[in-house]
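Repro:
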Amino acid sequence: MGSSLGSRRLLTRETITAMCDHIEFLHDPAFRRGDAGRLLVIEDMPVRINGVLVTVMAPFATDGASIPKWIEWLMVLVIGHQYAPSILRAAILHDWMCRMRHHWGSRRTHQVFHAAALADNVAPVRAWIFGKAVLWFGPQWKPGAR
């Protein structure tokens, strides 16, 4: 009886990351408290996405890993709070990509968020939860939309 088990790849951090975009944060963001409970990124935050340099331009206001009120209790258990260090860089990049939406669609933006969470060593299950949360409940648009 033949088995294909030997050819299956286990879903480890390495195999999941290999299936995703390659994200490299070049340094931590510098920020301060802004208006309405947001963080204000005060220095440019360069990121390489598949080898292409993308820069989150300062000043840039972010609400971190924003969470819909009706599911906030669950997400607090998963990530802690919306500015948790483990997800902050991915959230900043995601918020910036949402604002620059005419360059790419929402699906692509949410995929990069998932890959960025993995790049920041978020556990694969948590990164999957984050990725699905923004895909299902985040903003939706087509490439080229303003």
